[in-house]
Design goal:
Modulates RecA activity. This is Regulatory protein RecX. Keywords: Cytoplasm. Residues 66-105 form the RecX first three-helical domain. By secondary structure, the protein is mostly helical. Among the domains are: 113-155, Winged helix-like DNA-binding domain superfamily/Winged helix DNA-binding domain (Arc Repressor Mutant, subunit A); 158-208, Arc Repressor Mutant, subunit A (Orthogonal Bundle); 215-273, Arc Repressor Mutant, subunit A. The chain is built from 13 helices and 3 strands; from the N terminus they run βββααααααααααααα. It has helices at residues 35-40, 51-74, 81-90, 95-107, 113-127, 132-141, 146-152, 158-175, 181-194, 199-208, 215-232, 238-251, 256-273; strands spanning 3-9, 16-22, 27-34. Strands 1-2-3 form a 3-stranded antiparallel beta sheet. A hairpin with a 4-residue loop joins strand 2 and strand 3 (27-34). Helix 2 packs across helix 4 (95-107), helix 8 (158-175) crosses helix 10 and helix 11 (215-232) packs across helix 12 (238-251).
């Protein structure tokens, strides 16, 4: 049975110790352990080690190494349990050891998915334009359980959702002022849906912001889109060009009356230029 003959502090890591043993064939390096494992198993010179005790010591040392890796990962910012599990898995840590590490992290309060989730929701609410739906997706991707997500989403109150969505909607309308009222409304709804806002919030936004344009504003947008279509179909002439432009403007959500008015004015301009 091997006997510990020497315990030596490692040069590169003062918290790890190299264990040397002799099984009757001469002293040789056997394994290394963390300081906490050394103390826990009271390893010392002259101690006999059987295969079972060595396996137990090495298993606990693997847990300690993985635990230290997790602590290092957590030192930069708060992490979810899922993120820690994924990080350790990428380090090729076995599932049984990951399970023990996660248990210890919870015990020492280095992990708390509820607190992590609440902090994450607040950060996303205050620093991004994401709605609650998008934030929920992010939480799921971080491995947060559904029941926890339901609890922490209380940090994103309905009033704040409406406030942010109205702000986004106002900016979106200004940016897309050259679209027809119909297309602008459709685009705004899709935009807010992609951002993760619920229909109830979007409906309030539609009432709060002015999507419906005055006639002169609508005509200004139509003229802008009409000019683009004129350039697109510049190689066509007469009736064929007119029909292409008319169809294009109708597809873009402008009313037939305004389109006919625009085409009539366009015809008059052509006549004056001849």
């Amino acid at each position: 049975m091997p006997v510990i003959t020497k315990i030596k502090v490692q040069k590169k890591n003062k918290h790890r110790y190299s264990i040397f043993t002799d099984d009757g064939k001469g002293e040789e390096y056997a394994f290394s352990v963390d300081e906490d494992v050394l103390i826990k198993y009271e390893l010392k010179k002259g101690m006999e080690l059987d295969d079972t005790s060595i396996s137990e010591v090495l298993f606990q040392d693997d847990i300690r190494k993985a635990y230290n890796t997790a602590l290092q990962y957590l030192s930069h910012r708060m992490r979810s349990e899922g993120e820690v599990r994924e990080h350790l898995s990428k380090k090729e840590v076995s599932e049984s050891i990951i399970q023990e590490v996660v248990h210890r992290l919870y015990h020492h309060k280095f992990l708390d998915d509820v607190e992590f989730g609440k902090a994450f929701v607040r950060t996303q609410m205050n620093t991004t334009d994401k709605g609650p739906g998008a934030v929920k997706i992010d939480l799921r991707e971080k491995g947060i359980k559904a029941v926890v997500i339901d609890e922490v989403m209380g940090e994103y109150p309905y009033e704040r959702q409406v406030e942010k969505a109205v702000q986004l909607g106002s900016k979106f309308i200004m940016k897309n002022s050259k679209d027809s009222s119909v297309i602008l409304k459709q685009k705004l709804e899709q935009f807010l849906l992609r951002k993760g806002y619920p229909f109830s919030v979007i409906q309030l936004v539609m009432k709060e912001v002015s999507v419906k344009k005055e006639t002169d504003e609508e005509m200004e947008a139509l003229q802008y889109q009409g000019a683009k279509l004129q350039r697109k179909f510049s190689k066509l002439e007469g009736y064929e060009q007119k029909q292409k432009i008319k169809k294009g403007l109708y597809t873009k959500g402008f009313s037939i009356d305004l389109i006919d008015q625009y085409l009539s004015e366009l015809k008059e301009e052509d006549s004056d230029n001849r």
